[in-house]
Design a protein that fits this description.
Elements (H helix, E strand, L loop, with lengths): L4 H7 L1 H13 L5 E6 L5 H13 L13 H8 L5 E4 L8 H12 L8 E5 L7 H12 L5 E7 L7 H5 L2 E5 L4 H10 L4 H10 L3 H8 L2 H16 L4 H15 L3 H22 L12 H10 L2 H18 L6 H13 L1
Parallel strand pairs: 1-4, 1-5, 2-3, 3-4
C-alpha cells in the first residue's frame, strides 16, 4: 500500500514536517539527501514527494494515489521521474551521464523532472563527480533525491549540495504498537519489532506462519537443554535444522534464542514487564530461578559468537548448532 503524508508524519515526523512545509510554500529544494537505516521509509518518502509534485488531482499537497501520474510513479513508469539503482554492486558514471542526457531534454508531460538515486553511497568516484556537476548546475524544475544507509561514505561536496533529512529508526515499542493495531498478536509483534526497524518487514514477518513456528521451536530448544545430550541433538537434527535450512533463517532463530536469555536477565533484575516472550512468563520465571545470572550472560555470549561464526564461509550449520547447544547445556 502506497504511503500517504499522515503515515510519514507518524513514522518520521521531522522529515514529514520539512517536506510538507516546502510543498505548501512552493520552496522544494533542488536536491535532498535522505539518510538512515534500511527500513526507515526513505524510498517510500521519495515516491510520496514525487506523487505530490506530479499528481493530477491532489488534495492540498496530498496526492490522490489514483491518477495516471500517481500510478505510474508507483510502478516506476513515469517518463519524468527516474530511479537510478546500483548496477552490479555500484552506480556507474555511465548511469549518471545517461540521466544527465535524459534531463537535458524537455520534460515529457510537465515543466518538472525528478530523479531518485538509490544507495547513493555506492556511486563510483567518477559517478559521484558527474553527479556533483549535475547538482551544482541544476536544471530549472528539477528535483534530486539521494537515498543512503551509509551517509559517511558520500563525498562531502555532494552532501553540501543537498538538504539532508535524517530518517530515524522507529523505537521497537512504537513499532510493536503499530503492528498490534494491524491485529498482530502482541507476542509476535514484540519479537518482530526487535528483529527489524522496518514496519513493512515486521508486518510481513509477524504474519508469516513460519515465524510463529520458529518462535515455538526456539522455546522448545531452550526446554531441551535440560534433557539428555542424545535427545537434545536429535531435536536439533530432526526439528530445528529442517525449519531453519538457510543461514539467514538460522540467524533469525539465534536472535529469537538470544531474546529468551535477554528475558531471563530482565526477570532476574525484577523487570518482567520488559520481557518479549510475555505469554511465557510462568516458564521464563521458572527458568530464571534455576539459571544463575552468570550462566545467562555466558549463554548470551555463546549465541553472539555463534551468530558471528554463522557468516563464515563453509561453516556447517549442523555442527554450529550442535556445538552451541552443548555449550549452552553445560
Amino acid at each position: 500500500m502506497a504511503m500517504q503524508w499522515e503515515q510519514l508524519a507518524k513514522r518520521q515526523p521531522v522529515v514529514a514536517k520539512m517536506l510538507q512545509s516546502g510543498l505548501e510554500k512552493g520552496r522544494i529544494s533542488h536536491a535532498y539527501l535522505f539518510e538512515g537505516q534500511r527500513g526507515t521509509g526513505k524510498k517510500a518518502a521519495s515516491l510520496l514527494l514525487a506523487k505530490s509534485l506530479f499528481c493530477l488531482s491532489p488534495s492540498g499537497i496530498a496526492p490522490c494515489l489514483e491518477c495516471r501520474n500517481c500510478r505510474r510513479i508507483e510502478s516506476g513508469n513515469h517518463p519524468d521521474v527516474r530511479v537510478i539503482s546500483p548496477d552490479g554492486g555500484s552506480i556507474k558514471k555511465e548511469q549518471i551521464e545517461w540521466l544527465q542526457q535524459e534531463f537535458t531534454k524537455t520534460a515529457v508531460e510537465s515543466d518538472k523532472k525528478m530523479y531518485i538515486v538509490e544507495h547513493a553511497d555506492q556511486m563510483t568516484t567518477s559517478a559521484a563527480n558527474s553527479l556533483l556537476k549535475f547538482l551544482e548546475e541544476p536544471h530549472p524544475g528539477t528535483v534530486a533525491v539521494l537515498l543512503t544507509e551509509q551517509y559517511h561514505r558520500l563525498l562531502e561536496t555532494v552532501i553540501s549540495r543537498c538538504q539532508v533529512l535524517s530518517f530515524r529508526p522507529l523505537p521497537p515499542a512504537e513499532l510493536a504498537d503499530q503492528l498490534v493495531k494491524e491485529r498482530v498478536p502482541l507476542t509476535l509483534a514484540l519479537l518482530a519489532a526487535h528483529l527489524t526497524n522496518s514496519y513493512d518487514e515486521a508486518l510481513a514477518l509477524s504474519q508469516d506462519r513460519w515465524f510463529a513456528e520458529a518462535r515455538t521451536l526456539v522455546l522448545q530448544l531452550y526446554e531441551m537443554l535440560g534433557k539428555p545430550e542424545l535427545q537434545l541433538l536429535f531435536f536439533i537434527h530432526d526439528r530445528l535444522l529442517s525449519h531453519f535450512p538457510e543461514k539467514h533463517q538460522l540467524n533469525l532463530g539465534l536472535d529469537l534464542l538470544l531474546y529468551i536469555y535477554r528475558d531471563l536477565l530482565h526477570i532476574q533484575a525484577g523487570r518482567k514487564d520488559s520481557a518479549l516472550y510475555r505469554d511465557e512468563l510462568d516458564r521464563l520465571q521458572r527458568w530464571a530461578l534455576s539459571c544463575p545470572q552468570r550462566r545467562v550472560l555466558d549463554g548470551m555470549e555463546a549465541i553472539l559468537q555463534a551468530k558471528a561464526r554463522l557468516n563464515m564461509t563453509n561453516m556447517s550449520t549442523a555442527l554450529l548448532m550442535e556445538q552451541l547447544a552443548l555449550q549452552l547445556k553445560r
